[in-house]
Amino acid sequence: MLTELLNIDTIQIVNKVANWQEAIYVAASPLIQQNKIEKRYIQAMIQSIEQHGPYVVLTPKVAIPHARPSDGVNELSMSLLNLQNPVLFGADKPVSLIIVLAATDHTTHLQALVDLTQVLQEPSQIDNIIGCQRPECIMEKIKKYATEEQ
Amino acid sequence: MKILVVCGNGLGSSFIMELNVKKALLELGKEAEVTHTDLTSATAEKADIYIGAGDIVDQLDNGVRKIVRIVNMMSIPEITFKLGPLL
Q: A67 — contact with chain B (CB < 8 Å)?
């Protein structure tokens, strides 16, 4: 499931961005281009963090920004941005991997999140993904970690 | 015993954390009902323990509720350490 959503068209590697808002914008841009989400979804993700704080930083170095299905999601989708230079989501929250989640309801994305939990449960696996220089490398690692027997 | 995992939208981070809270319970050898929801619904929902990122659960702290603040939502040891004494 996760490997169907994260693919060569939705994974990007970028050197650096100015701030976390730009990180979310850049991370979500493939989904805009594919018409999977509307532009207002990006604003909603940013607003949610401004309102509640950087709770989307799930674990060190990784953020999963998202908003509600009603905020402009056309199709269940995800995208991933790997930043070579981390960006701060909070004073002590540097983030290198930004995984945008766009869900259409409360259930269809859950298997992808179960897979994602497998991928993110080991800090070494996160570092290996951050170390990738090409999207193909990231896809390969995600596929390996998501399907590995734990 | 009911544990409510809370996040901003009740869609992403709280679900992932719910999976990890269940793993932590298994390690602790304890049983509890674990569900996840968004902050707005959580204010009206009764639970024995509310758990989530500090930014979020602090807003639920009315001085009476049992609140657990998690920094690393992927860390089973952190969840086990903080949740264990309350069970």
A: yes
Q: Touching check for A1 and chain B: CB below 8 Å?
A: no
- Flag whether residue A64 sits within 8 Å of chain B, measured between CB atoms: yes
Task: Please check whether residue A56 is in contact with residue A101, taking contact to mean a CB–CB distance below 8 angstroms.
Answer: no
CA quadruple A31, A138, A143, A60: dihedral sign: negative
Concatenating the DSSP letter of every residue in B54-85 gives HHHHGGG--SSS-EEEES-TT-HHHHHHHHGG
Kindly report whether the global pTM for this prediction surpasses the value 0.90.
yes
ipTM: 0.88
pLDDT tens series, chain B, 87 aa? 999 999 888 788 899 999 999 999 999 999 999 999 999 999 999 999 999 999 899 999 999 999 999 999 999 999 999 999 999
Half-sphere exposure of A106 (CA within 13 A, CB side): 8
Q: Which chain B residue shows the shortest CA-CA distance from A49?
A: B8
Best probe of the B interface among A55, A66, A76, by most B CBs < 10 A, is: A55
Query: Residue B74: its chain A contacts at CB < 8 A?
Result: 58-59, 117, 120-121
